[in-house]
Amino acid sequence: MNSILKWDGHTHTAFCPHGTSAELGLYLDRAVQLGFTRYTVSEHSPLPKHWMKNEQLQRELAMEASELPAYFDYVKNYKNRYEGVLEIWTGMEIDYLPGKPQYSLELAEQCHHEVEDWVVSLHFLPGKDGMRCIDYTPQDFEEGLIAYYGSMEKVVDEYYNELEQGVALAAKLPGSRRLGHVNLIEKFHKALPPIDPDQIRKRLDGLLPKLAEAGVGIDVNTAGLRVPTCGQPYVPGWFIGRCLEMGIPLVFGSDAHRPEHVGEGWNYYEESIASFRSARP
C-alpha cells in the first residue's frame, strides 16, 4: 500500500484576528512532534474595504492588505529556520467572493510570486443587509440567511452554486490549488433547521466533474470535528472515495487556529483513504 504524505495543508497564524497570538514556531513544533513532513501556512486573505455592513466583524475575519509583506516575511523566516526539519509551503486561504471574483484574482496576481499553495474557500453569501458570513454564529445564520432566502434548502443551494464558481476561480490560480472545507455550510447543522442529506450528496456529486476538469483539489478539512454544532468533518468519507477514483488531489487540513489544533483529525483522513484502498479489487 502506498504511504500517505503527512501534510497539514490548511493552517493559520497570529495574523488571523480570530486566532491566537501564538508564534508560528509552536504550530510547527507540534507538526514535527506528530510526524508531519510538509506544512502549509495558509492565512486568510485580506477582504475588500466595506465588504460587509458589519465592519467590526469584517475586521475580525482577516488580515489587512497592508500586512501582506510582513506575513510573507514571517513565513519565509520560519521556512529558513525549519529547513531540513519540516517542508513549509507559503500559502493563502483566498476567498471566492460572490459578485466580486475579480478582487481575488487581482490579489492572487499581486501575491503569486510569494504563494506556493492556495486554498479557495467560500465564507460569504449575499443575505440580509448585504454580505453575511456563513460560519459566524447560528443566530446570525438564521437571521441573515435563512430569513433572507426563505428556507434552509434555498441557502444550501445558493452556497453550492457559489462554490461551483469558486472552482472556476481556483482553476485560474498558479501552482497548487484546492477548494477549502466544501461542507462548511453544515457548521451549525445541530443548531439550525435540518439540511437534507440527499441535497448535499446531489450537490457534491455535481461538483466532482468540475473539480476533475479544472484540476482543482480538495482540502479534507476536519475542523468540524471540534465544533459542537457540527461534530463531523467538512468532507464526507464517500466524497473522499469518489475524489480518489477520479484522480482529484486530496490534502488533509486541520484548519488550525491555535497550535494544539495542528494535525487534529488526521486519523479520519488516513482511515478514509485506507478504507477506499482496501475496498479496491
UniProtKB/TrEMBL annotation:
Keywords: Amino-acid biosynthesis, Histidine biosynthesis, Hydrolase. Residues 8-223 form the PHP domain. InterPro entries: Histidinol_P_phosphatase_HisJ, PHP_dom, Pol/histidinol_Pase-like. It catalyses: L-histidinol phosphate + H2O = L-histidinol + phosphate. Pathway: Amino-acid biosynthesis; L-histidine biosynthesis; L-histidine from 5-phospho-alpha-D-ribose 1-diphosphate: step 8/9. It comes from the Bacteria. Pfam families: PHP, PHP_C. Its EC number is 3.1.3.15. GO terms for molecular function: histidinol-phosphatase activity. PANTHER family: HISTIDINOL PHOSPHATASE-RELATED (PTHR21039), HISTIDINOL-PHOSPHATASE (PTHR21039:SF0). Belongs to the PHP hydrolase family. HisK subfamily. This is Histidinol-phosphatase. It comes from Paenibacillus residui.
